[in-house]
Amino acid sequence: MGKKGGGRLLQAAKAAKQGGGGPPAKKQKKSHGSGPAQHQKQKQQSTKPSASSAASAAPPPLSSSSTSGSKKQHKQKQHSDPTIPFSPDENILLVGDGDLSFAASLVEHHHCTNLTATVYEKDLDELSTKYPHVRANVDKISAVPGCKVLYNVDARRMAPFAHKTKDKQTGRVEQTGTMDRIIFNFPHVGGKSTDVNRQVRYNQELLVNFFKRSFLSLAPGGSVIVTLFEGEPYTLWNIRDLARHSDLAVEKSFKFQARVYPGYHHARTLGVVKNKKGEAAEGAWKGEERPARSYVFVRKDDVPKPPAPGMGKKRKVEESDDEDEEEDDDWGSGEDDLEEELGDDAEGDVDDAEDAADDN
């Protein structure tokens, strides 16, 4: 065997002794594991703190799910307390109060001492025909000094609740409203028509005239509060726009919660629902269990001021304490256009449409 062959055997023996089972690996021209880039990457990693030290140095970030959950809990807690839009010592006017159960609750459970409850019916006998249980509520209201019930009051034509003062120099008589809160719960003209468009128009007329008359009775800094059921057809009434045409603006809105008024029961405009025997139906529809919302309106310019430069910009006038709502600040085409639109329905009648009663 020559020197060349012996050298190969010697190399194989050395490789076997070191643990290799085959010929020595060929020398690679490039090394992918120890180049400058890899060395720099390893150096950067070595300078970073370990996971345990980073965790101890700063609190872990909140996930999006935990953040949204905490916000939801905060919102529920914030709105758990119901909104009561009046104080016991304020002058309160209830318009179209139906069976007077709402007024009785304000007197008995909220201790209101300056309350005037009005109904559309001409007297107690007519009111009792529609609501047989109403006399008990009348007694509760009348028993409190400063509280009373007025009959034959039309929400569309009611006389102003105001006091008059005469200027000694000019002789001009000025009229100032006396009511701090004017409340109209679930206004409705009544009737059994299935024509939704016509019902919407009649109820819009009712609200427009109510807002105009309420404006005259509203004390400085006072508010008008209207409660409606949520959803259609009530959303079709566009109550915000109707109020705007009467120089009122929405200050805020909130969920109406009937449980805040013990003893209150929703009363329908047509009276108590009766069965075939003429008795009050026990399983009748209960409006107090439906979702409803109250809207608080105030005068747009409660304290008149001269216009300042740049004051022509629109402002946000509605805030909600229960949920976010987008408020459209488009003022429409004017009150005359609205009245013309509401008044040109000359065809058809709705049963009891002339009753400007409530659905309270």
TrEMBL record:
Task: Look up the record and report any one GO term of the cellular component aspect.
Answer: cytoplasm
Pfam families (UniProt xref)? BMT5-like
Domain of life of the organism encoding this protein: Eukaryota
Q: List the molecular function annotations (GO) for this entry.
A: rRNA (uridine-N3-)-methyltransferase activity
Show the InterPro entries listed in the entry. BMT5-like (IPR019446)
Looking at the record, the residues that make up the 25S rRNA (uridine-N(3))-methyltransferase BMT5-like domain are 93-268
> What are the boundaries of the region Disordered?
1-90, 296-360
Biological process (GO) annotations held by this record are: rRNA base methylation
Where would you find the membrane-spanning parts of this chain? none
User: Where is there biased composition of kind Low complexity?
Assistant: 34-70
Biased-composition ranges, Acidic residues, are 319-360
Protein name stated in the entry: 25S rRNA (uridine-N(3))-methyltransferase BMT5-like domain-containing protein
User: Which source organism?
Assistant: Neurospora tetraspora
